[in-house]
From TrEMBL:
It comes from the Bacteria. GO terms for biological process: riboflavin biosynthetic process. It comes from Jiangella rhizosphaerae. GO terms for molecular function: 5-amino-6-(5-phosphoribosylamino)uracil reductase activity. Residues 4-170 form the Bacterial bifunctional deaminase-reductase C-terminal domain. This is Dihydrofolate reductase. Pfam families: RibD_C (PF01872). InterPro entries: DHFR-like_dom_sf, RibDG_C.
Length: 193
């Protein structure tokens, strides 16, 4: 089974979006460089961010996201983001009316079922869990192996928390990756068991 990684870009004070679900300047680092990060060429980062991000993105086999994120993005128009093969959506509701059943999206009830399905789909590749409520639930359930965050130099003051509503202490090891890019600090921590 592949490693389960909780990930997002986050403000210095721990938020992945403002109160209105807007990322604001969190993603400025994705347009602050001169190295295209994907085929579109719209996303350009520094060489250091490119090397770090591509090495992380390329082995991802499945991404887990909550229904809220799925709805905010209009289901990425049925195409998983960043070239990921499958998206597992944690939801208590059925797929949207008219949803293409051939799209590589899987709708499950609960984080445990989502991680199990994502690991089945990903095989020995990485499983990415979007930070926020679903990521926090997976961390609290002991299902996350690593926490990765791209820390942007912005303070929101309030908004959607990186760890969602986690209300218990969880220890992480010292960061095993610390990379400074342009307008971002890339960090990676193993979850202490």
């Amino acid at each position: 089974m592949g490693k389960v990684v909780m990930y997002s870009t986050v403000s210095v004070d721990g938020f992945i979006a403002d109160e209105n679900d807007q990322p604001g300047p969190l993603f400025d680092w994705l347009v602050s460089g001169d190295v295209p990060l994907d085929e579109s060429g719209a996303v350009k980062v520094s060489q250091r961010s490119y090397d770090y991000t591509r090495a992380y993105w390329d082995p991802i086999g499945a991404t887990i996201a909550g229904r809220h994120v799925f709805d905010l993005t209009d289901g990425w128009d049925g195409k998983p983001p960043a070239g990921v093969d499958h998206v597992v959506v944690v939801t208590h509701r059925p797929p949207p009316e008219g949803w293409d059943p051939e799209a590589p999206f899987h709708f499950v009830d609960g984080v445990e079922a989502a991680v199990a399905k994502a690991q089945e789909l990903a095989g020995d590749r990485l499983v990415e869990v979007a930070a926020g409520d679903v990521g926090g639930q997976a961390l609290a359930a002991g299902l996350v192996d690593e926490v990765r965050m791209d820390v942007a130099p912005v303070v929101f003051g309030s908004g959607k928390r990186f760890f969602g509503s986690v209300d218990a202490q969880h220890l992480l090891d010292d960061p095993d990756v610390v990379i400074q890019g342009d307008r971002v600090l890339h960090l990676s921590y193993r979850v202490r068991r």
